[in-house]
Amino acid sequence: MIPVAAALDALFALTAPLDAEDVPLARASGRVLRVPVTARRDQPPFPASAMDGYAVTDDAAPGAPLRVIGESAAGTAFVGRVGPGEAVRIFTGAPVPEGATRVILQEDVTREGDRVMPAADAFGSGTNIRPAGADFSAGHGMAPPRLLRPNDVALLAAMGAGTVAVTRRPRVAIIATGDELVLPGDAPGPDQIYASNTFGLAAHLSALGAEPRLLPVARDSVAALSTVLSLVDDADLVLTVGGASVGDHDLVARVAGDLGLDRAFYKVAMRPGKPLMAGRLGDAVMIGLPGNPVSALVCGHVFVAPVVRAMLGLGAEPARRLVAPLAAPLAANGPREHYMRAERTEAGLRAFERQDSALLSVLGAADALIVRPPHDPARAAGAEVPYLPL
Ligand SMILES: Nc1nc2c(c(=O)[nH]1)N[C@H]1C(S)=C(S)[C@@H](COP(=O)(O)OP(=O)(O)OC[C@H]3O[C@@H](n4cnc5c(N)ncnc54)[C@H](O)[C@@H]3O)O[C@H]1N2
Ligand code: MOO
């Protein structure tokens, strides 16, 4: 058994960022920017009005009437110059005409025909002019790598980027193994159960920006497993689930080995997730996950997600850890790093009573995995502990 950190390092050593592809900006959210984007012009490109009102010169004063000489609308500027005693009707976002040094709000004037009279309090609230480049200047850049969120997409649009270069989505083949498995929606025999963890893994991978493909369930025979493993095609990452332990029907190591798996490690000092296996299988990274549903999904957080992020070009980093106090004491930990299903409460982290790795109902109720290092001593309520947010 190797420590979790060593296993993760071994996986990172097998992993390289995938190449980039151009996508239209409208499809860029959730993707990872790979090439810098640079604004070609200032935003706003001209001094712009922040309010609906009247553009006036420095000479304008309360009670002094002004003649309205034209209009500047967003998209159609007033052509010409505003002089003393004059005003230009202006709207939010419109270019401020030459000569104007402030915009007074339409609520703060009285208008009769082509005359406006600023009220006493019309000059209090700043100039109401956004200078050219107030948001960003030409040359402003967005640097890669960056996981593009909706707000980034808006900024890229404002910078004029119609397409962006992003990492192509990692293709992930997911193979469930076992005679006992049927797909949800199918009719299980009396000795069968529904395949579950593969669906959770696929959902997690989609959320990470990968492209999961659920392959047919491999039955517990060398022939069936070989056949399904031959379907992985052009996958960047192959995940098998189950058949990783020491039972007579646990065939993954043997079959993957026959197919040329260059094994990096087998068995990790963690709980759940001990019989984890990984290596290179052809052009793909292969991770053999344990079958117990919680084991597979916890390994999804601890190993699969960081590998996918590395493939996306986001760097080789372990899953993000936070620290919080315990709401209740914990007994001493054993020799394996324990990822305890827990909930975040106002009083702190509370581990669930039942930590069996078969219990998806407990994992479903959890929003944190408390990380207990090997041989961590007993911890009192209030002790600060690391956890992975779920
Ligand atoms: N004698 C020993 N037995 C076991 C050991 C051990 O060290 N010595 N390790 C235990 C641990 S820890 C784990 S974890 C499991 C891992 O077993 P496998 O990876 O070989 O998984 P299976 O035996 O195929 O399945 C275990 C369990 O999970 C269910 N399963 C499998 N795939 C799915 C799926 N896609 N969806 C839902 N449930 C699934 C399967 O029905 C079994 O109940 O081994 C322990 N045993
Ligand atoms: O390691 Mo197993 O994954 O504890 O249940």
Automatic annotation (TrEMBL):
Q: What is its EC number?
A: 2.10.1.1
Gene3D superfamilies named among the record's database cross-references: MoaB/Mog-like domain (3.40.980.10), MoeA, C-terminal, domain IV (2.40.340.10), Molybdopterin biosynthesis moea protein, domain 2 (3.90.105.10), Molybdopterin biosynthesis moea protein, domain 3 (2.170.190.11)
Which coenzyme or cofactor does it need? Mg(2+)
Q: Which UniProt keywords apply?
A: Magnesium, Metal-binding, Molybdenum, Molybdenum cofactor biosynthesis, Transferase
Q: Where is the MoaB/Mog domain?
A: 173-310
Q: Enumerate the catalysed reactions.
A: adenylyl-molybdopterin + molybdate = Mo-molybdopterin + AMP + H(+)
What does the record give under GO molecular function? Answer: metal ion binding; molybdopterin molybdotransferase activity
Query: Which family does the similarity line name?
Result: Belongs to the MoeA family.
Task: Return the protein name.
Answer: Molybdopterin molybdenumtransferase
Question: What species does this protein belong to?
Answer: Roseivivax isoporae LMG 25204
